[in-house]
Amino acid sequence: MSKKKVNWDIKKISAIGPGLIQGNTAVPCHFNIYTGFFPGSRSCAGQDDPRDALDFKIEGPSEPGPLKCSNNDEDGSVDVDWTPLLQGDYKVYVTFNGMNINGSPFKVSIAGESIKAHTLTSKVKITGDGLKKGIVNKENSVFIDTGDKAIAGGLSVSIAGPRTANAKLVMHNNQDGTFKITYKPNLPGNYLLYVKMADSNVPNSPFTVKVTKN
Question: For the whole model, what pTM was predicted?
Answer without folding.
Answer: 0.63
